């Protein structure tokens, strides 16, 4: 299934809604006071033509990784900002947490299929993230902070639709 062709069903979507959907799907302990999501909506548009199902999965995977690595008092901040991608309008979605961070040598391999530092799981999560984002003509990068991790996803606002 991982290597099957990706069929995209584009819909003009507010990415902020997908962030909230992904958070509700992530394995958040509902009675936990030690985790929070902060979405800085700002005044910039966060609407893009994406496959909402796939991009929600991208966001859920990123949020779940923050939750899995969390220490007490985890805060995940997400912001959207307009940017230019190859001369066309784009949106950058920035996920930043205050967790333990990712060592640089791990960050370099994080998007490789089957690479994991967890004792459970397939090691495909971030590889799928990269594949889904790339299928939309976007990019993803990961940075280790002191403390925390930042993942930036850049997506074009509109898609060229082929005559399939």
Quick overview:
With about 160 residues, the chain is of the alpha+beta class.
Can you describe this structure?
The chain is α+β, with helices and mostly antiparallel strands and 164 residues long. The chain is globular and about 40 Å long. The strands form two sheets. A five-stranded mixed β-sheet has the order 2-4-5-7-6, with helices on one face. It has four helices and seven strands; from the N terminus they run βαββαββααββ. It has helices at residues 15-25, 52-68, 104-107, 125-135; strands spanning 11-14, 35-40, 47-50, 74-85, 88-97, 139-144, 149-156.
Task: Give the tags.
single chain; 164 residues; alpha+beta; five-stranded mixed beta sheet; two-stranded antiparallel sheet; 4 helices; 30% strand
Give the topology:
Elements (H helix, E strand, L loop, with lengths): L10 E4 H11 L9 E6 L6 E4 L1 H17 L5 E12 L2 E10 L6 H4 L17 H11 L3 E6 L4 E8 L8
Parallel strand pairs: 2-4
Antiparallel strand pairs: 1-3, 4-5, 5-7, 6-7
Helix pairs in contact: 1-2, 2-4
The whole-angstrom Rg is 16 Å
Shape descriptor reads: globular
List unreliable stretches of 5+ residues.
none
Elements, N to C (H/E)? EHEEHEEHHEE
